[in-house]
Amino acid sequence: MLDLRRLKILREFAEHGTIAGTAQALGYTASAVSQQLSALEREVSASLLDRTARSAELTDTGRLLAEQAEQILALVEAAESALAAQTDVPRGRVTVTAFPTAAVAFAPKLAEILRRHERMQLVLRQAMEGTGAHKVSAGEIDVAVVDDWSGLAPDTRAGKLRHIHLLRDPMVLALPADHPLADPRRPVDLHRLRDEAWIAAPHGEPSRQGTDRLLADIGGAPSAAWEFEGLGTILSLVARGIGIAAVPALALVSGSSGLAYRRFPEDAPSRDIYAVIRASSLRRPSIDVTLRALLTAASEMDETLSDTLESEGHGGILRRPDPGTPGGGDQPSA
């Protein structure tokens, strides 16, 4: 009988290509990974890795088993989900990761809703941008809250992943409370803001994509723009009058004082925020109630952020597209 834990390690090795990378992804030591793969080789009576003093790579047999491991692990989870669905009682541990701004925004409502299910345990972790979908695919976590600035259909990894759309999160203008444009009667004109002191995330940070797209029509961000990591840091500096910034509206959930916020024009850049799960886990009651809690939190954030921004006749700013529309994603089961 093949050990499922060892098959998972082999699958991760196929993904990362090194013992060290596999160990880091799974939270093991490199020696533990190497030992488990050696044990798997004894189980199948075949060499799975070609090892040298400095590297290791899959043999043809190793590649074949890694491909089969992907299917085996998905089938096992699907079977577990089907059995769990028979009880219709959410239970067990659900691990959710989210990028920092989303973790702060979603945590209160998630905890409030899921604490009603006594047999469930929620683990919410902050994750680096761009890592969530991979961790779900690898089976390291159950749900990832991720953002996407591309506007393209999400990568389902050949149907392995499902994306449930939570929010469309537009860029908004963050200003010191005493800035002239804090007055909602004054129109926002980007050309007139070209010479302001802009504060932006460094190049390579996801939110910087939105800032660069926003300012592209007026020649891009000023060369003297201040660059700081972390939206919390940026908003703190804006509140102190250091400059102005374009930030995703979700950052405003933190409720920093000393700030005013204005809408950009209707075509301002925005990002889509998704909950990502494995398709094989969709029938688990604990996953279903977690997705519903995330959707409830997203709906309440829409209202909260709409109240925070001055009313300009546009209604809510974080609109979820209808299922089936581009970017709409999937929906939890009924």
UniProtKB/TrEMBL annotation:
Gene3D superfamilies: Periplasmic binding protein-like II (3.40.190.10), Winged helix-like DNA-binding domain superfamily/Winged helix DNA-binding domain (1.10.10.10). Signal peptide: none annotated. It comes from the Bacteria. GO terms for cellular component: protein-DNA complex. Pfam families: HTH_1, LysR_substrate. Residues 2-59 form the HTH lysR-type domain. Coiled coil: none annotated. Residues 325-334 have a biased composition (Gly residues). It comes from Nocardiopsis gilva YIM 90087. One of its GO terms (molecular function) is DNA-binding transcription factor activity. Keywords: DNA-binding, Transcription, Transcription regulation. This is LysR family transcriptional regulator. Residues 304-334 are annotated as: Disordered. Belongs to the LysR transcriptional regulatory family. Transmembrane segments: none annotated.
